[in-house]
Design a protein that fits this description.
heterodimer; A: 201 residues; mainly beta; 7-stranded parallel beta sheet; 5-stranded parallel beta sheet; 8% helix; B: alpha/beta; Metallo-beta-lactamase, Chain A
Chain lengths: 201, 208
């Protein structure tokens, strides 16, 4: 479920972390501290992270392993050396983010948006990422091997030195993407879309 | 307001369950494509009352289980057409702030993919049906319909704030900002061409 309350700061349309009424950017130091400590507390007990909205956050070495993220928004955030392994993510927004040296192994993601993000040297091996939005990625030195990417969308991306080996690429959209040194070994690229429009609805 | 995304294997269609936050159990279904145990479980677990079914357009795969919904959760069906699969509907037209069972809904008519295509805006969420999907416009027959669709999307859906969430009938969710930046069909389609086509307001659905 996604809750869409917006910031009460005049002119701001960003989402808020309930019960706060202002977004992370317009929150005071105390509110920010509470949001971040809540996040850390949930992560420490591998619990369910829900309705957290941190736009423009900066995270280093965050351990999100085996947690669950639902209906959260981390747009414009930076993640360095974070570990999302075996995490379950649903209806979350990581658009326009930067991911460097992060691990997403055995991630289970659905209806999640990574569009416009810059992803460097990350691994997504053995993951299930169904109905995910990776449009406009700047993706260099990553590994999506052994993943199920059914119905995910990588259109308009720049993908360099990245492996999609032994992946399920059924209905995956790579239209208008610039690719260099991309390996689809043992995958089914014939069931993905590279140039033409998908079948008629 | 909360949105639950539900994927229907048959036709690979998304249905959405929209609920209110104010302690009220009222809920809406957007596109009754599939009703399975998962969805029934969520409805029952949260003791939700389905108060209405909103249809984005009447292509069969988007309304496949409407009869099943009506049997289990009898409620009115809202759509552009007067009747869908033998069920009489509450006919909608383009309106802003239309009240449906306590939900305030902006109803946008965005033809092109089909003549009866409606887009529903509830709070910060835009349910686009087949008009707009992540990274692409839906198929439309012929140049004129493609231009009508491109014009409807850019003029109506893109008039909302960049942070509005887009929940399409197929595929992954998106945001208005993302579609403005990366929608290949819209970048490819010269909007100026469609502007030229309609400069005399001579299109079959009237002036937007």
């Amino acid at each position: 479920m996604f809750k869409g309350d917006i910031c009460v700061h005049p002119g701001c349309k960003s989402y808020v972390s309930p019960p706060f009424r202002t977004c992370f950017h317009h929150s005071g130091e105390e509110e920010r501290r509470i949001i971040l400590s809540t996040l850390e507390e949930i992560l420490s007990r591998r619990g369910l992270i829900k309705d957290i909205c941190i736009i423009g956050g900066d995270f280093e070495g965050l351990d999100i392993r085996s947690s669950s993220l639902r209906a959260s928004n981390f747009s414009f955030s930076t993640f360095r050396g974070c570990d999302f392994s075996s995490t379950s993510i649903s209806t979350c927004f990581f658009d326009m983010c930067i991911f460097i040296n992060c691990r997403f192994d055995e991630l289970h993601a659905r209806y999640t948006v990574f569009a416009g993000s810059r992803i460097r040297n990350c691994t997504f091996t053995g993951s299930t990422m169904v109905n995910c939005n990776f449009m406009g990625l700047d993706c260099i030195d990553n590994d999506f091997s052994s993943s199920d990417l059914y119905f995910s969308n990588f259109s308009m991306s720049r993908i360099i030195s990245t492996r999609f080996e032994d992946c399920n690429l059924k209905r995956v959209n790579f239209r208008a993407s610039a690719m260099k040194e991309v390996s689809f070994k043992y995958s089914n690229p014939e069931e993905a879309f590279f140039q033409n429009k998908e079948d008629e609805e | 307001m909360r949105v639950y995304c539900h994927f229907c294997d048959l036709g690979q269609v998304n249905s959405y369950l929209v609920t209110r936050e104010d302690g009220c159990s009222d809920a809406l279904i957007i596109d009754p494509a599939g009703l399975d145990n998962d969805l029934i479980g969520i409805i029952e677990r949260h003791s939700l009352d389905i108060r209405g079914i909103l249809v984005t357009h009447s292509h069969f795969q988007h309304v496949r289980d409407m009869g099943k919904y009506q049997k289990i959760y009898p409620c009115p069906v809202y759509a552009w057409n007067r009747e869908i699969l033998g069920v009489e509907t509450v006919q909608l037209k383009e309106t802003k702030g239309f009240g449906i069972e306590g939900f305030k809904v902006d109803i946008l008519h965005v033809p092109g993919h089909s003549d009866d295509s409606l887009v529903y805006v509830i709070g910060q969420s835009i349910f686009t049906g087949d008009c707009l999907q992540a990274g692409r416009l839906s198929t439309a027959t012929g140049y004129q319909n493609s231009a009508i669709l491109a014009r409807g999307v850019t003029r109506k859906i893109f008039s909302y704030d960049d942070n509005h969430l887009i929940f399409p009938g197929h595929g992954s969710p998106s945001k208005v900002r993302i579609e403005k930046m990366f929608n290949h069909d819209l970048l490819e389609t010269s909007v100026s061409q469609s502007e030229e086509l309609f400069q005399n307001d001579a299109h079959p659905f009237g002036k937007a």
